[in-house]
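Lab manual, section 2.4: Encoding a predicted structure.

Procedure: take the sequence of the chain (180 residues), apply the prediction step described in section 2.3, and record the output as structure tokens. A sample record is shown.
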Amino acid sequence: MAAVDGERFDERMAELDRAVSELIADAEAGSARWARSRRGKWAAGQHAAHVAISLADTADAFEERLPRVLDGTIAAVPRRGPLQWLWVSLLVGRGVMPRGGRTPRRFEPAADPGLAETVDRLRREVERHRAVGHLLTAAQRDRLWIPNPFVKRWHYTLVELVRAHAVHVRHHLALIREIS
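Recorded output:
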């Protein structure tokens, strides 16, 4: 189980860096398959673009809440019920992302995302998460939380979501590799 507290932010960012670097390397090495897909499924480029959209969404949310952590006015991190605890334990703790979930429309990629633009966006959105975390102490990182982008009544802290993104990237990288 991965440790996901404010003290381990740099470790979790390094994990996200590795996952995104692997996704980018795979995309650039196999640029011919960028537009290839299995019937009725996303193309490799769409998987990468979806990851970038997800990263951008949570970076926006963390940047919006950052001032409230810095001035101490953010609400306490909410408690979790049993189902949310189980989900976070699976995704964040064990690094398992089940298949078959439906992506909300706002996270769906364009039909033909550009390779260079998508790679640039992936890098930029990772750096936005890093920048937020580096503005905070370890204790502040543990207090910075946002609603879960998929289930609004649930939540993630900054470090939990950095870990969740790393798992999410590896999940989509596996799907991309299955296209070949």
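Check your result against the sample. The radius of gyration is 16 Å.
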